[in-house]
Amino acid sequence: MQQPQREVRAVHTASTVTVYQAYSPEIGLPAVREGRFPAAWKRDRMTWIKPSFLWMMYRCGWAAKAGQETVLAVEIGREGFEWALRHACLSSYQPGVHPDRATWQREVKRSPTRVQWDPERDLRLQPLPYRSLQLGLAGEAARRYADEWTVAIRDVTPLAHEIHGLVRDGDLDAARRLLPREQPYPAAEELLSNLRP
């Protein structure tokens, strides 16, 4: 079956959604230990969350890039995730979506969240023909994410290293079996109606 061009796929339960981020150990390890982001985590800057594990692996180079050595699976409440989507705008101007550039610029100024669609990745981190969601949280959204929406934080760096080792050894079937089971997110159709170019 062909994948929709833009669809939110994530590990989710009846009450939570799992997103991924990568940090230096100085931020990541205290976050895992305390189950919340430490004071050193900047609540006043934009942070990007990714429901796609493989897109996160592409971004952090399997947890090998400087400052991204600790990969976190952050479980957040669905209410918060959906609030973020409801208050989002596209991160770039799209003629088919926005009447003009000025309208988009006004939206960006007042929206606490941004949506960006990036090519999904395969196990070799090559781009696939469909896209995955990246959600940028700023201001109120970033603070809510860190202090209200977060339910649990797990360190999935060992999982990233294990899957990467299997990929390097050419055992893609074993690597695929270890991937988090991401499914289409049920409420996304209505929430994303104005966020697809």
Strand-residue proportion: 25-35%
Binned, the helix content reads 25-40%
Number of helices: 8
- Give the tally of β-strands: 9
Question: What value does the average pLDDT take?
Answer: 91
Low-confidence segments, given as residue ranges, are none
Span between termini: 22 Å
Could you say which structural class the secondary elements and strand pairing correspond to? alpha+beta
Strand line-up across the major sheet? 3-7-6-5
The radius of gyration over CA amounts to 17 Å
- Helix-strand sequence: EEHEHEHEHEEHEHHEH
* Major β-sheet annotation: 4 strands, mixed
Shape field? globular
List keywords for this structure.
single chain; 197 residues; 4-stranded mixed beta sheet; alpha+beta; 3-stranded antiparallel beta sheet
